[in-house]
Amino acid sequence: MALLEIKTAGDPVLKTVCTPVDKITKRLRKLLDDMAETMYASDGVGIAAPQVGESIRVCVVDVDKKNRYDLINPVITWREGSVVDNEGCLSCPQLFGDVERAEKIRVEYTSRFGKKKTLEADGLLARCIQHEVDHLDGQLFIDIAKNITKGDKPNRKRDA
Ligand code: ZN
To answer: How far is the CA of 114 from the centre of ligand 1 (A)?
Structure first.
C-alpha cells in the first residue's frame, strides 16, 4: 500500500462531478487500499477518490477504526431526520463548521468484490457517508457549512 497526496480546496478536481465506475479492477482495489491507508495516516474517518486526484465515484469510510466500508458508486436512496454537527475535511485543513445532514440514511453501493449492497446508517457513519457522496458531486463541506472556524481542533475530531 502507499500513501497518496491529499488534494486541498482550490484544486479543480475537488469541484468536478465524478464518473461512475463501470469495472472493478485490481487497480481499483489497490486505489481503495491506498485511500484507506492515507485516511488512517491522516486520522480521518472518510476519504473520497477526488481527494486523491481520481475523479471516480468511490469512497472509503471507517468511523470507529473497526468497520471499513469501501463504497463504489454509492447512491443515497433514503434520508430521514435532520441533525446539525461540526465537521472537518482532510482537503480543508484547519477548517471546521456546522453542517445540517440527514440523521439516518440508506445507501446502495457496489462492494470491492462487485456485490450490490445496501447499508442503513445513522450517527457519525451517516454523516460521513453524506460528506463523501458530496465530494463525488464536486461539493465541499465548506460550501454548505455555517459558523466556519479556523484552528487546530474541532469541537470533535471528525475529518473526512
Ligand atoms: Zn471531505
So the answer is: 25
Please report the DSSP string for 90-156 in residue order: TTSTTEEEEEEE-SEEEEEEE-TTS-EEEEEEEHHHHHHHHHHHHHHTT--GGGT-EEEEESS--SS
- The answer to the question of residue 90 being in a domain is yes
Check if 54 is active-site: no
On whether the pTM is more than 0.85, the answer is: yes
Host domain of residue 65: 12-150
**Can you tell me the distance from the alpha carbon of 116 to that of 95, in angstroms, rounded to the nearest whole number?**
35
Distance CA 46, CA 91 (A): 11
Structurally, the chain folds into a number of domains equal to 1
Domain CATH for 119: 3.90.45.10
pLDDT tens digit string along 89-126?
A: 999 999 999 999 999 999 999 999 999 999 999 999 99
Do residues 74 and 107 touch, judged by C-beta distance below 8 A?
yes
Please identify which of the residues 5, 87, 108, 132 carries the catalytic annotation: 132
Distance 115 CA to ligand 1 centre (A): 26
